[in-house]
Known about the structure:
By secondary structure, this protein is mainly alpha-helical. The protein has a domain at 3-87: His-Me finger endonuclease fold. The chain has three helices and four strands. The protein has helices spanning 36-43, 59-93, 126-135, and strands spanning 15-16, 19-20, 23-25, 56-58. It has a two-stranded antiparallel ribbon. A two-stranded antiparallel ribbon has the order 3-4. A hairpin with a 2-residue loop joins strand 1 (15-16) and strand 2. The longest helix is centred in the middle third of the chain and has 35 residues, at 59-93. It is elongated. It starts with 14 loop residues before the first strand and ends in a 7-residue tail after the last helix.
Amino acid sequence: xxxxxxxxxxxxxxxxxxxxxxxxxxxxxxxxxxxxxxxxxxxxxxxxxxxxxxxxxxxxxxxxxxxxxxxxxxxxxxxxxxxxxxxxxxxxxxxxxxxxxxxxxxxxxxxxxxxxxxxxxxxxxxxxxxxxxxxxxxxxxx
Length: 142
């Protein structure tokens, strides 16, 4: 068995019925603009050709590489935003804060008042009040 019959990254066996299937050459030129090697260099990982290491990658690892390329740009943007926010907070922290800038939490959480049941039919007095009002009587008071 040759080293190139396995994925360089996840070590998955790449041959099906003796033929390479769903694999890509890492250092080989394909119809696409960049090779896998150049895509990894752009992300900061430099590979070296070595007879002990495979020159192929499986489809799953290439898909993972594509997702990393897509999501790393968003992650880098978050890093820049956080660094800017930290530097802005550092500049504003050196000045004294006004009391009006402080946010206060509400003293109590609002809760709806509990409903009382009528005790006769375990309703919430509402339909009894309607019935009494229709008969001309006074509604029940809680």
